[in-house]
Design brief:
Strand content: 25-35%
Radius of gyration: 25 Å
Number of strands: 20
Helix content: 25-40%
Strand order of the largest sheet: 6-7-8-3-9-10
Largest sheet: 6 strands, mixed
CATH topology of the largest domain: Rossmann fold
CATH architecture of the largest domain: 3-Layer(aba) Sandwich
Order of helices and strands: EEEHEEEHHHEHEHEEHHEEEEEEEEHEE
Length: about 375
């Protein structure tokens, strides 16, 4: 296991503060966040290119905070790939293999297996200047893995590639992780990439980690307003707890002019508590009388204000009666065809109790 304990790093005027993180073996942990939030600084600290002003880095129960880069047992693939321009593909790959030999490991079988697996055998004598973007990515990945290290740091290595090539390499990285038993920490601002590759996710904003959890936890239940904002969730509403018990919570949402049931124990025992609640656009459902439902809670009647086509989905903006607030709803094609919605139409929606989340302000 790789453990970061209270890592604080100063980089010019930027401060990476109080980072705690545990990454289990043979898992991929994705760190997501906007550009400039400190993701690269964190990776550079883990690999040893930056020295923390406070905190410790532990690997397999051993503190490695003061060890040089080459002694940490971690490989690093930077965003610019850092291929040596004066060496051809074979020699770039062999550079990583030499590191493997220096650690009394046998790199030949590993390197030959990687060359075959990533399909670069025909490129070995080629200059790195004459490689496509995808070919450069593959060569850099082989060089990093040829060290034989089981821990791999990836710093947005696919950001310069077009969508089709990126998705091809996503699948390849997952297969390599499983085949070679890799533990991966990757940073990205691409949400689809993070949720495809990551087993667990951390959201970093302004030099701090605001939330860490499984993919489902982080996606479905953002913990703070900042995380919800980063995900682009606009269905956020002020509410007040009017009844709380172990079996559930009822909140009065003035923004939507409705009382809502929440299946959460977060506010158990707290009366008259001001909270912010939210729900993802895809978790708001239109009520269909032809479908029998046992749960009739959290229904809201209002008017469809606007409809926008978004490719495979459609965004619908719904205004509850007696309010000026929008509820954003995202519907797949099949649902739009069933519902036959139109602007100005009076409709009823319902909010799934188990999908409503509560958020708090982040760090101050």
């Amino acid at each position: 296991m790789l453990e970061l304990k209270g890592i604080t790093v100063k980089a010019g005027s930027f401060l990476l503060k109080g980072i705690d993180l545990n990454v289990e073996e043979q898992r991929c942990h994705a760190i997501i966040g906007p550009t400039g939030c400190g993701k690269t600084t964190l990776l550079e600290t883990v690999i040893g290119l930056r020295k923390p002003t406070r905190g410790e880095i532990w690997l397999h129960g051993k503190e490695i905070s003061s060890l040089p880069v080459e002694s940490r047992g971690i490989s690093y693939l930077p965003q610019d790939l850092a291929l040596f321009p004066h060496l051809n593909v074979r020699k770039n790959i062999n550079y990583g293999a030499r590191v493997c030999k220096a650690k009394d490991r046998k790199p030949d079988a590993l390197v030959s297996g990687l060359i075959e697996r990533l399909g670069v055998a025909h490129l070995l004598e080629r200059s790195v200047h004459n490689l496509s973007g995808g070919e450069r990515q593959r060569v850099a990945l082989i060089r990093a893995m040829a060290t034989g290290n089981k821990y791999l740091l990836l710093d947005e290595p696919l950001s310069s590639l077009h969508e089709a090539m990126k998705k091809e390499l996503w699948l390849l990285i997952k297969k390599l992780q499983k085949q070679y038993g890799l533990t991966i920490i990757m940073v990205t601002h691409d949400l689809e990439e993070a949720f495809f590759l990551g087993d667990t996710i951390s959201v970093m904003i302004d030099g701090r980690i605001y939330q860490t959890g499984t993919k489902d936890e982080v996606y479905r239940f953002p913990a703070t307003l900042e995380v919800a904002g980063f995900f682009g969730i606009r269905n956020l509403y002020e509410a007040e707890v009017i009844n709380s018990a172990k079996e559930g919570v009822i909140v009065r949402c003035k923004d939507l002019n409705v009382d809502l049931n929440l299946t959460t124990d977060k506010f158990t025992g707290l009366q008259n508590k001001e909270v912010t609640i939210g729900i993802r656009a895809e978790d708001v459902m239109f009520y269909r009388p032809d479908l029998k439902r046992q749960d009739q809670d959290n229904t809201i009647t209002g008017t469809i204000a606007e409809i926008f086509r978004k490719g495979a989905t459609t965004a619908v903006y719904f205004v509850p009666n007696g309010t000026q607030k929008n509820i954003e709803i995202e519907l797949p094609d099949y649902a739009m065809q069933k519902l036959n919605l139109a602007q100005g139409q009076i409709s009823t929606v319902f909010l799934k109790s188990e999908r409503i989340f509560t958020v708090i302000p982040g760090f101050r």
